[in-house]
Amino acid sequence: MATWKEFSEAAPQTASVFVRRHTATGNLCMLGTLRSDGFPRISPMEPRFFEGQLWLIGMPNTTKFYDLARDPRFCLHTATVDTHLADGDAKLFGVVQDVQDKALHQRFAEALFEETGFDLRGREFGHFYAADLTSASAVESVDDRLEITIWKPGEPERVVRK
User: Fold this and answer.
1) CA 57, CA 55: separation in Å to the nearest integer?
2) What DSSP element (H or E) covers 160?
3) Banded model confidence at residue 59, pLDDT cuts 50, 70, 90
4) Nearest 5°: phi and psi at 36?
5) Of 80, 93, 109, 159, which residue is least crowded by CB atoms under 10 Å?
6) Which CATH number characterizes residue 74's domain?
7) What are the phi and psi torsion angles at 55 (to 5°)?
8) 45-81 burial, b for 16+ CB within 10 Å, e for fewer?
9) Which residue segment(s) compose the domain that 100 sits in?
10) What values do phi and psi take at 154, rounded to 5?
11) For the chain, how many structural domains are there in total?
Protein backbone atom coordinates (compact mmCIF):
# COMPACT_ATOMS: atom_id res chain seq x y z
CA MET A 1 0.00 0.00 0.00
CA ALA A 2 1.10 3.57 -0.57
CA THR A 3 0.29 7.04 0.71
CA TRP A 4 -0.51 9.69 -1.87
CA LYS A 5 3.06 11.01 -1.70
CA GLU A 6 4.54 7.53 -2.22
CA PHE A 7 2.09 6.81 -5.04
CA SER A 8 2.73 10.09 -6.87
CA GLU A 9 6.49 9.44 -6.74
CA ALA A 10 6.15 5.83 -7.94
CA ALA A 11 3.44 6.49 -10.55
CA PRO A 12 3.85 10.08 -11.77
CA GLN A 13 1.88 9.63 -15.00
CA THR A 14 -1.17 8.12 -13.30
CA ALA A 15 -1.00 10.66 -10.46
CA SER A 16 -0.76 13.50 -12.98
CA VAL A 17 -3.91 12.38 -14.81
CA PHE A 18 -5.76 11.97 -11.52
CA VAL A 19 -4.77 15.44 -10.28
CA ARG A 20 -5.60 17.05 -13.64
CA ARG A 21 -9.10 15.51 -13.75
CA HIS A 22 -9.68 16.08 -10.01
CA THR A 23 -8.83 19.75 -10.42
CA ALA A 24 -10.81 20.21 -13.64
CA THR A 25 -14.03 19.00 -12.00
CA GLY A 26 -13.69 21.16 -8.90
CA ASN A 27 -12.36 18.17 -6.91
CA LEU A 28 -15.37 15.97 -7.74
CA CYS A 29 -14.81 12.22 -7.93
CA MET A 30 -17.01 9.17 -7.64
CA LEU A 31 -16.36 6.87 -4.68
CA GLY A 32 -17.12 3.18 -4.92
CA THR A 33 -17.76 1.36 -1.62
CA LEU A 34 -19.45 -1.88 -0.61
CA ARG A 35 -22.88 -1.82 1.02
CA SER A 36 -23.70 -4.12 3.94
CA ASP A 37 -25.48 -6.50 1.52
CA GLY A 38 -22.32 -6.75 -0.62
CA PHE A 39 -23.59 -4.70 -3.54
CA PRO A 40 -21.52 -1.73 -4.73
CA ARG A 41 -22.43 1.86 -3.91
CA ILE A 42 -21.31 4.88 -5.96
CA SER A 43 -21.27 8.25 -4.20
CA PRO A 44 -19.99 11.70 -5.11
CA MET A 45 -16.96 12.77 -3.11
CA GLU A 46 -14.50 15.65 -3.01
CA PRO A 47 -11.25 14.05 -1.82
CA ARG A 48 -8.50 16.39 -0.61
CA PHE A 49 -4.73 16.26 -0.62
CA PHE A 50 -3.08 17.29 2.64
CA GLU A 51 0.31 16.60 4.20
CA GLY A 52 1.27 14.00 1.59
CA GLN A 53 -1.92 12.04 1.98
CA LEU A 54 -5.21 11.69 0.10
CA TRP A 55 -8.16 12.15 2.48
CA LEU A 56 -11.69 10.85 1.98
CA ILE A 57 -13.70 13.02 4.29
CA GLY A 58 -17.05 14.74 4.02
CA MET A 59 -20.47 15.17 5.53
CA PRO A 60 -20.76 12.97 8.62
CA ASN A 61 -23.35 10.21 9.00
CA THR A 62 -23.57 9.40 5.30
CA THR A 63 -23.87 5.87 3.97
CA LYS A 64 -20.53 5.98 2.14
CA PHE A 65 -18.74 6.51 5.46
CA TYR A 66 -20.77 3.77 7.16
CA ASP A 67 -19.66 1.52 4.27
CA LEU A 68 -15.99 2.44 4.80
CA ALA A 69 -16.25 1.90 8.57
CA ARG A 70 -17.52 -1.63 7.91
CA ASP A 71 -15.29 -2.48 4.91
CA PRO A 72 -12.34 -0.15 4.21
CA ARG A 73 -11.95 -1.05 0.53
CA PHE A 74 -12.73 1.63 -2.05
CA CYS A 75 -12.38 2.72 -5.64
CA LEU A 76 -12.09 6.42 -6.43
CA HIS A 77 -12.82 7.47 -10.02
CA THR A 78 -12.36 10.90 -11.50
CA ALA A 79 -15.60 12.38 -12.77
CA THR A 80 -15.73 11.64 -16.49
CA VAL A 81 -17.57 14.23 -18.55
CA ASP A 82 -16.03 13.52 -21.95
CA THR A 83 -16.70 10.15 -23.58
CA HIS A 84 -13.67 10.67 -25.84
CA LEU A 85 -11.39 11.02 -22.79
CA ALA A 86 -9.60 13.99 -24.32
CA ASP A 87 -8.53 15.05 -20.82
CA GLY A 88 -7.99 11.55 -19.48
CA ASP A 89 -9.55 9.54 -16.71
CA ALA A 90 -8.12 7.83 -13.60
CA LYS A 91 -9.06 5.30 -10.94
CA LEU A 92 -7.46 4.67 -7.57
CA PHE A 93 -8.01 1.51 -5.54
CA GLY A 94 -7.19 1.03 -1.90
CA VAL A 95 -8.25 0.86 1.70
CA VAL A 96 -8.86 3.60 4.23
CA GLN A 97 -7.56 4.11 7.74
CA ASP A 98 -9.55 6.18 10.21
CA VAL A 99 -6.96 8.61 11.58
CA GLN A 100 -8.05 10.01 14.93
CA ASP A 101 -5.52 12.77 15.51
CA LYS A 102 -7.19 15.97 16.71
CA ALA A 103 -4.14 18.13 15.94
CA LEU A 104 -4.11 16.82 12.35
CA HIS A 105 -7.85 17.45 12.05
CA GLN A 106 -7.42 21.06 13.12
CA ARG A 107 -4.46 21.62 10.76
CA PHE A 108 -6.62 20.21 7.97
CA ALA A 109 -9.57 22.43 8.92
CA GLU A 110 -7.32 25.50 8.98
CA ALA A 111 -5.85 24.67 5.56
CA LEU A 112 -9.32 23.99 4.14
CA PHE A 113 -10.55 27.35 5.42
CA GLU A 114 -7.55 29.18 3.93
CA GLU A 115 -7.99 27.42 0.58
CA THR A 116 -11.78 27.49 0.21
CA GLY A 117 -13.32 29.61 2.96
CA PHE A 118 -15.29 26.60 4.19
CA ASP A 119 -15.00 26.74 7.97
CA LEU A 120 -14.67 23.50 9.93
CA ARG A 121 -12.20 24.97 12.40
CA GLY A 122 -12.83 23.89 15.99
CA ARG A 123 -15.16 21.06 14.97
CA GLU A 124 -14.67 17.42 15.86
CA PHE A 125 -14.37 14.86 13.06
CA GLY A 126 -16.02 11.49 13.59
CA HIS A 127 -14.27 9.69 10.77
CA PHE A 128 -11.15 11.01 9.07
CA TYR A 129 -10.16 8.56 6.37
CA ALA A 130 -6.64 8.40 4.91
CA ALA A 131 -6.45 6.54 1.61
CA ASP A 132 -3.78 3.84 1.30
CA LEU A 133 -3.47 2.96 -2.36
CA THR A 134 -3.18 -0.63 -3.58
CA SER A 135 -3.35 0.01 -7.34
CA ALA A 136 -4.31 2.64 -9.88
CA SER A 137 -4.89 3.21 -13.56
CA ALA A 138 -5.27 6.10 -15.96
CA VAL A 139 -6.65 6.24 -19.49
CA GLU A 140 -5.73 8.85 -22.07
CA SER A 141 -6.60 9.25 -25.73
CA VAL A 142 -3.37 9.59 -27.73
CA ASP A 143 -3.33 9.74 -31.54
CA ASP A 144 -6.80 8.15 -31.88
CA ARG A 145 -6.03 5.23 -29.57
CA LEU A 146 -6.24 4.64 -25.85
CA GLU A 147 -3.22 4.47 -23.60
CA ILE A 148 -3.93 2.78 -20.29
CA THR A 149 -1.31 3.32 -17.61
CA ILE A 150 -1.40 0.76 -14.80
CA TRP A 151 0.36 0.91 -11.42
CA LYS A 152 0.77 -1.62 -8.62
CA PRO A 153 2.97 -1.15 -5.54
CA GLY A 154 6.56 -2.24 -6.04
CA GLU A 155 6.23 -2.13 -9.84
CA PRO A 156 6.86 0.67 -12.34
CA GLU A 157 3.92 2.05 -14.29
CA ARG A 158 3.22 0.11 -17.46
CA VAL A 159 1.32 1.28 -20.53
CA VAL A 160 -1.12 -0.79 -22.57
CA ARG A 161 -2.13 0.64 -25.94
CA LYS A 162 -5.49 -0.17 -27.55
Assistant:
1) 6
2) strand 158-161
3) confident
4) -65, -25
5) 159
6) 2.30.110.10
7) -110, 135
8) bebbebeebbbbbbeeeeebbebbeeebebbbbbbee
9) 4-161
10) 80, 0
11) 1
